[in-house]
Amino acid sequence: MSDALLKEYRTLQSKKAKMTAELAVLARGSISVKTIKGNEYCYLQCRDGGRVVSRYLKSDEVTPVKKELAKRKRYEKELAGINVRLGELEYAGRLIGHGLAQQMLRIKLASGMDSLSSAEREKAVSFGVALNAVEGVPATEQAASEVAAWCSGATSYLAAFDTILKRYGFSTGGASHA
């Protein structure tokens, strides 16, 4: 049963991370139509802080923006359901045992890392290297190799993280990385 819960949890976390990343670039707001001197003009309007910002849409932009807005609405609704289900799975994990809850926490913490772009992965690695240099604790060659494998997309972040944890004697609960 624990394997089934972990599989569903991992799948939902992955889906959530992908949808969240896509939501960050999808159009937001609504389209308003204004008539000026008998001609209709479309504007994308959205809130930016405390004010409403309008952007003129050329006629060939209206349909794609409408599709993006509809997709955003679907994703936001689906994400609400995913968040509810993740909460239910986390509750079940805590009831079943501390080890399962810890595995779910590791999956949750790592889930967004695999959806990062190559450039974002490079920045994350660069920041980690800089932070280690400040602390005076450079990464081992093996750890650097695991991180490089994640950065290139050859392995998942969780697999790399678990390999590094195991190398230093920490238990990872034996979760598989499907």
How would you sum up this structure, described in words?
63% of the residues lie in helices and 13% in strands. It is α+β, with helices and mostly antiparallel strands. The chain folds into 2 domains: 1-112, no CATH class; 116-178. It has a 3-stranded antiparallel sheet, with helices on one face. A hairpin with a 2-residue loop joins strand 1 (30-36) and strand 2. The model has no long low-confidence stretch (mean pLDDT 90).
Task: Detail the topology: elements first, then pairings.
Elements: H1 2-23, E1 30-36, E2 39-48, E3 51-57, H2 59-96, H3 98-110, H4 118-135, H5 141-151, H6 157-167
Antiparallel strand pairs: 1-2, 2-3
Helix pairs in contact: 1-2, 1-3, 2-3, 4-5, 5-6
Helical residues, percent: 55-70%
* Content of β-strand: 5-15%
Number of domains: 2
* Average pLDDT reading: 90
Which spans of ≥5 residues are poorly predicted at pLDDT below 50? none
Q: Helix/strand/pairing class, anyone?
A: alpha+beta
Q: How large is the radius of gyration?
A: 22 Å
Q: Tell me the overall shape.
A: extended
Count of beta strands: 3
Order of helices and strands: HEEEHHHHH
User: N- to C-terminal separation?
Assistant: 16 Å
Biggest β-sheet: count, sense, barrel?
3 strands, antiparallel
The strand line-up of the biggest sheet is 1-2-3
How many helical stretches? 6
